[in-house]
Amino acid sequence: ACRSLAASPLLGFRGVAVQQAEDFDQVLVPEGYRARPFFSWGDAVLSDAPAWHPDASDDWQAQLKQAGDNHDGMHFFPFPEAPDSHGLLVINHEYVNPPLHPNGMTLADGRRPLDEVKKEQAAHGASVIEVRKDADGQWQRVMPSRYNRRISGFTPMRISGPLAGHEAMKTVADPSGLEVLGTLNNCSSGFTPWGTYLICEENWHNYFVNHDQADFARRVSHKRYGLANEGMSKLYGWETADARFDATPDASQPHGGYVNEPHRFGWVVELDPFDPDSQPVKRTAFGRYCRECSALSLGDDGRMAFYSGDDTKGEYIYKFVPSGRFDAANPRASRDLLDEGTLYVAQFSAEGRGRWLPLVHGEGGLTAVNGFASQAEVLLNARAAADLLGATPMDRPEWVAVHPTTREVYVTLTNNDGRGTRQPANDANLRPANLHGHIIRWNEAGADPTATEFTWEFFLLAGEPEGATTAAGDAVPANLIGTINGDLFSSPDGLAFDQAGRLWIETDYEDRDTVMQAMGCNQLLCADPQNREVRRFLVGPRGCEITGITWSPDYRAMWINVQHPALSYPASDGKTRPRSTTVLITKNDGGVIGT
Ligand code: FEO
Ligand code: CA
Ligand code: CA
Ligand code: CA
């Protein structure tokens, strides 16, 4: 990578230092900026929500009216009348942690208590909250608001697109295959040009188990995604209290009981935040995998692409190209635009060239003989289809960001300790035991989001500088040396551009791991895509990851998420239990963030 000593004109702030203190329980931002906790797990969303109890004794009914846990992807939707001072903030709640309950997650006689399971399901999903600047110009949450809403693991959702009503989507509880309850593991997100939010379902496979060994061995739609096939489901054992999560086939029940329930997750969920009565829609044309994000690239002619990473070691990067175009003069025509289109998977070749391979039934061997009876099966088993096409296995693709003017596309490959062993190295994933991750960027041919060829290069390899030594005085191994021009970090995850073209990078690594000692607590950094300079803008409390990022349209307010802090945050008093929190960042002089 090229290195430049010239300071970037895009980065106007003074960087903050790495924070290595074991008891660091703050959010640190540059001089001249302020970070304010804005929306924490348990805060009221609906006006009749009970006040959050610090001992976590709120029951599942209360949780359904309060902010969920593990805030992740989010987006600010402005009201057209006052875009820079009034909007809706939509925030994903990815998963739950033991401090959700007074005494952590419990098990009695091999079963999870139903009340705990229900609270955990209630704490997943998303929050829609109305936000507005008050008379003093300070952003506040609006309460009550007709827009405020909690989406959870219970919320009924419509299934649309090629899998709607398909045999593979039917269960004993939903013989129509048209309606599913809830969304789970809502990691990153996306938005459309017509003002809707896209919730992405990431590690849904961890919520199910299939105990039938023979069935599991041949059921690609379970096995290829890593469902548990013995003991309890990998995350919470919900199936011990709620039959819906036991995907073992049951021949005595219509549609095999819940064997198809795992088929109803792994999609993009489209939500209209401005219509609080609207039913969220699972869009199956996007394909089913462990989707991190869904990042829009909009062409001048209204054609578009949505880019996604499948965040698992050795999985792929996809893009979905809707058949139709966005027509700004007629946004209602976009209502079902996401039901028809082409799903592609990326193949990165040597010499910086790449191709998008279409996942289209009948093409490239995606035929009945190979287990793909129709386009519905191709989408349901997108990973297996991508295997067959020869897609490039990546080092855990997380977020994708598209440059606001050039449409250059960036992706974080967060890390992969199995590279070189589980997956052989390839041109785009070079480092064995890639613990620090890297960022790749590419240009679609003709800057056309729908192009099928691109050119790519490494933007940077994360890790320590050349010549770095460990705390013990040994040389840092070559696979952990990076090419960062500026401040040190590991495991890039969240990624987004602001309108001026600053690239914001959020990190997610195990901050107590000895390999991460030089990195300190997790961080938000800002990079200049031209000279590749990287500067640290924010550091979060011990044990958290920094994720989620959005702005008011004038870029004078920025919100980020502190997810799963280990110490007392936001109370920072050494005793109140930690709470995932949306943090508001403003500049004291009212200026644009980053300038
Ligand atoms: Fe939920 Fe891949 O992070
Ligand atoms: Ca996370
Ligand atoms: Ca992530
Ligand atoms: Ca991550």
TrEMBL record:
Gene3D superfamilies: TolB, C-terminal domain. It comes from the Bacteria. SUPFAM superfamilies: NHL repeat (SSF101898). PANTHER family: DUF839 DOMAIN-CONTAINING PROTEIN, SLR8030 PROTEIN. This is PhoX family phosphatase. It comes from Stutzerimonas azotifigens. The lineage of its organism: Bacteria, Pseudomonadati, Pseudomonadota, Gammaproteobacteria, Pseudomonadales.
